[in-house]
């Protein structure tokens, strides 16, 4: 299922794109924006895996927006101008669709997005922008993930050997779409745990095998919303 956001400064273009998307199977438009700043303020909470992004916009163009969201969703660029093609593909976008957009051409772009999303979900590693550049992290090395205290858009990953790596601008929703669901579960609003890092699991608390600053092991409080997912991970 493609869950899509639209960003275009022209309201008529947004209406037309929404109309096209409604005619395409397994595509749902979650929200449309005509202001890049409003889109960036909500991008982490949208739960979308694809963004249809106009390049030519006043104030902040689509190329800059694409850089800022750093791959948190797959991007389909739209524009009436062919001169942006090279820059667009340098950003590793899914597709570059010229306006006026035809339904058949948009279907092709969504098909490409589905294939890329499907492949990424089968991988046993995360490839993402981090504090040390673009990095590949193998999921079997990940013990614990939490929301960064410096910037809530970022996520701190602790590996089994104690190494900490910061994933830049990635929501828990999109992160959980990438991680193997049998191996990871969200514990509360700010933390994800790997099953391999759990020592003790009770009704309200998890004791991990991750050393804490106090000389003991890291303990996590289980949010009510996430109990069923944790039980499923442990086969209960």
From TrEMBL:
<dbReference type="InterPro" id="IPR001789">
    <property type="entry name" value="Sig_transdc_resp-reg_receiver"/>
</dbReference>
<keyword id="KW-0597">Phosphoprotein</keyword>
<dbReference type="InterPro" id="IPR011006">
    <property type="entry name" value="CheY-like_superfamily"/>
</dbReference>
<feature type="domain" description="Response regulatory">
    <location>
        <begin position="3"/>
        <end position="114"/>
    </location>
</feature>
<keyword id="KW-0238">DNA-binding</keyword>
<dbReference type="GO" id="GO:0003677">
    <property type="term" value="F:DNA binding"/>
</dbReference>
<feature type="modified residue" description="4-aspartylphosphate">
    <location>
        <position position="54"/>
    </location>
</feature>
<dbReference type="Pfam" id="PF00072">
    <property type="entry name" value="Response_reg"/>
</dbReference>
<dbReference type="InterPro" id="IPR007492">
    <property type="entry name" value="LytTR_DNA-bd_dom"/>
</dbReference>
<protein>
    <submittedName>
        <fullName>DNA-binding LytR/AlgR family response regulator</fullName>
    </submittedName>
</protein>
<dbReference type="InterPro" id="IPR050595">
    <property type="entry name" value="Bact_response_regulator"/>
</dbReference>
């Amino acid at each position: 299922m493609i869950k899509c956001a639209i960003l275009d400064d022209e309201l008529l273009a947004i209406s037309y794109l929404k109309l096209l998307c409604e005619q395409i199977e397994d595509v749902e438009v979650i929200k449309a924006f005509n202001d890049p700043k409003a889109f960036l303020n909500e991008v982490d909470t949208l739960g979308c895996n694809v963004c249809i992004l106009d390049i030519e916009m006043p104030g902040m163009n689509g190329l800059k927006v694409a850089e800022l969201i750093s791959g948190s969703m797959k991007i389909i660029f739209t524009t009436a101008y062919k001169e942006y093609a090279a820059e667009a593909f340098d950003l590793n976008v899914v597709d570059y669709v010229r306006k006026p957009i035809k339904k058949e051409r948009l279907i092709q772009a969504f098909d490409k997005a589905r294939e890329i999303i499907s492949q990424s979900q089968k991988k046993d590693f995360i490839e993402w922008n981090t504090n040390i550049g673009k990095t590949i992290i193998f999921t079997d090395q990940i013990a614990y993930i939490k929301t960064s205290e410096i910037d809530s858009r970022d996520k701190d990953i602790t590996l089994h050997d104690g190494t900490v790596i910061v994933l830049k601008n990635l929501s828990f929703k999109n992160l959980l779409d990438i991680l193997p669901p049998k191996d990871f579960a969200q514990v509360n609003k700010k933390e994800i745990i790997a099953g391999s890092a759990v020592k003790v699991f009770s009704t309200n608390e998890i004791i991990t095998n991750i050393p804490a600053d106090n000389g003991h092991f890291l303990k996590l409080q289980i949010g009510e919303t996430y109990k069923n997912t944790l039980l499923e991970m442990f086969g209960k």
